[in-house]
Structures are given as structure tokens and as C-alpha cells.
């Protein structure tokens, strides 16, 4: 597990979740996937949510970014990112928060990586879209991001395809993409489940190091 750095009570939380309830209206009844979770997170804090499979961890993470689609609904609660009430934002405003202020990485990197695009293309796409960088600058920044997540031989890896990378390398690419827009908060949904134990330890150490270096909550 990650070392927990205790938040300073005097600091405004970067994220506050209060009484969040997310339900799924299924054919055979209503599934209360998340039933009133509350927590808050200081800007320099690492918070872990632990629970058995099916207890609502992923639905909580998806709810924060408003990625819940019907038949799922957030039925109650508040989600605040800094001074913004995320449940009150328009979809357009939410898009700017997603992937920009708040980054997210998932359990299975292959789900978030496009198998038809090189690593360079996927990272640069985000940078061009969100940061308005020109091709050359985007490539330089992509290289820098791969170095930041300690990928060996980043020049070569930029040209590779997702299936050519090991599970650990793919997870690092995912982290690099999540960091592209310098988020203040990174939501990681079981970021190490898909990799072996040695790699798990390395990824957790990397995340911890990045949080400290980049002033990011996790
Ligand atoms: P965890 O991540 O803690 O393993 P989840 O958040 O994925 O658990 O799931 C919580 C509950 O919500 C589970 O019972 C799961 O089956 C249900 N659930 C999650 N996503 C959906 C969905 N899209 N449609 C219906 N039920 C869902
Ligand atoms: Mg899950």
C-alpha cells in the first residue's frame, strides 16, 4: 500500500465527496452500487479506498468524473472539486475538468489505449487537443512525459504500438497520458491489478514520487 501522507486540516480540500449515492435501475430492481460515501482529500494527500469486489469503488471513481451512463444515476450527494460543484456543471464544463484538472487511470490499460495508434499518436493527441500544442512541441512534451514515468528508451517507445509493450510499460504510458495536462488530482482505479507483484511495487513508488514532485493529490 502507499504511504498515507496526512492532510493538513487548514488546507482547502481539492476534492470533497459528501453522501454520494449512485444507483442502477435494472430490470429486476434498483441496485444501490454506492450508498452514501463521504470523504475529502487535501491537495497533497494520497487517499485509498479499499473494499471487496463489487463494493462500489469503480462506480465511486466514475461518479466523480460523471462517467456514469444510464441505467446508472447519481441520485444524491455532493461532489466538489476545489470550489466547483461538479454535479452542477454543464457537460461542456465537465469535459474541461475531466482529463485536464482531474486525470484518471484505469485497471486495464488496454481498455484506455487505442490498439490502432502508436504511443506517440495517443499522447500527442491529448496534448494537441487540450493544450493546443503544435506537432513538434507535442512530441517533445510526449518524450518528456515518458521520461517522467521512467520508460526506458522513450524515443523508441514513442514509435511502438500498445501490444508491443509489457503490462508495466503500458501502465506507465497510461500514467504519462493522465499527467499530460498536469492534473491537480489523479484518480487511479486499481492501477496495479493487471501487473505482476514486482511491477506493482514500482508503479506505486512511481505514483507516490509523481504526487510529491507534481503537487498532485491521488
Ligand atoms: P468495485 O469497483 O468495488 O469492484 P463496482 O463499483 O465496479 O465495484 O460495482 C459496484 C456495483 O455496481 C456492483 O454490484 C456492480 O455489478 C454494479 N455495477 C457497476 N457498473 C454497472 C453498470 N454499468 N450496470 C449495472 N450495474 C453496474
Ligand atoms: Mg472496480
Keywords:
about 220 residues, alpha+beta, four-stranded antiparallel beta sheet, two-stranded parallel sheet, 8 helices, 6 strands, about 20% strand, globular, binds adenosine-5'-diphosphate, binds magnesium ion
Structure description:
The protein is globular, with a radius of gyration of 18 Å. The relative contact order is 0.15. The strands form two sheets. It has a four-stranded antiparallel beta sheet. A two-stranded parallel ribbon has the order 5-6. The chain has helices spanning 57-64, 91-97, 109-112, 119-131, 135-148, 154-158, 167-179, 197-214, and strands at residues 15-26, 29-41, 72-81, 84-85, 102-105, 185-188. Helices cover 38% and strands 21% of the residues. With 218 residues, the chain is α+β, with helices and mostly antiparallel strands. The site of adenosine-5'-diphosphate has 12 residues, from strand 2 and helix 1.
Outline the biggest β-sheet.
Answer: 4 strands, antiparallel
Q: What strand order characterises the main sheet?
A: 2-1-3-4
- What general form does the structure show? globular
Stretches where pLDDT is under 50 for at least 5 consecutive residues are none
